[in-house]
Amino acid sequence: MADVTFLKPRTVAQILARGIVTLAKVTQSARSDASILMAHALGRDREWLIAHGESFITKAQTEKLAAFYDSRATGMPVAYIIGSAWFYGREFIVNDQVLIPRPETEHLVDEAVEHLRARANPNLPKALLTVLDVGVGCGAIGCSIAAEVPNAAIEATDTSSGALKIAEHNARRLHVFDRCRFYLGDLVQPVPSRHYDVVVAN
């Protein structure tokens, strides 16, 4: 359990410092993790923490933060604790039903977007370009492509119904759901006879 001193009135800076010490025992990103978790617990951004280090926070907030630190100390990823992760400049809802999108995967989106834009027909600006996202997970790749290429239609597969629900939710949040279709099944099995301009997989 987190140190009981979290439950006493303390300032943002004091609790953040203690959180860093606590998490340093289990992760090399203790400072970043502690800041992200505190910002989420307080409903603030990380810049606010720096500017308001002498501010006191409530007992309820400290209890919530202590629970966050407990979860992180057991090895739970920060993204699962706060329920979201950033990818390609957008926030995606995640949970333990999906993998957390990784920054290096953004290069895959770069390549797909460049390829699709090169294939676009200037004489048919509204012609849809088709993309298959195999193993869609939270939808980070497919939804990002749809958001970057307005005339891209995304079809996506996954063996997890839970993952598909998350992907659909993210597609709605990013306002690309009308150009996305999601299928339950392994790899390309749900769409065996279709052809696509791009096929992507993480």
The largest sheet, given as strand count, sense and whether it forms a barrel, is: 4 strands, parallel
Helix content: 40-55%
Q: How many E strands?
A: 6
Shape: elongated
Arithmetic mean of pLDDT? 92
Strand portion, in percent? Answer: 5-15%
From the alpha-carbon coordinates, what is the Rg to the nearest angstrom?
Answer: 21 Å
Protein topology:
Layout: H1 12-23, H2 30-42, H3 46-51, H4 59-73, H5 78-82, E1 84-87, E2 90-93, H6 106-119, E3 129-134, H7 140-148, E4 152-158, H8 161-173, E5 180-184, E6 198-201
Parallel strand pairs: 3-4, 3-6, 4-5
Antiparallel strand pairs: 1-2
Helix pairs in contact: 1-2, 1-4, 2-4, 6-7
Structure write-up:
The model has no long low-confidence stretch (mean pLDDT 92). A hairpin with a 2-residue loop joins strand 1 (84-87) and strand 2. Strands 5-4-3-6 form a four-stranded parallel sheet, with helices on one face. Strands 1-2 form a two-stranded antiparallel ribbon. It is elongated. Helix 1 (12-23) packs parallel to helix 4 and helix 2 (30-42) packs antiparallel against helix 4 (59-73). It contains eight helices and six strands. It has 202 residues and is α/β, with parallel strands linked by helices. The chain has helices at 12-23, 30-42, 46-51, 59-73, 78-82, 106-119, 140-148, 161-173, and strands spanning 84-87, 90-93, 129-134, 152-158, 180-184, 198-201. It is 43% helix and 15% strand.
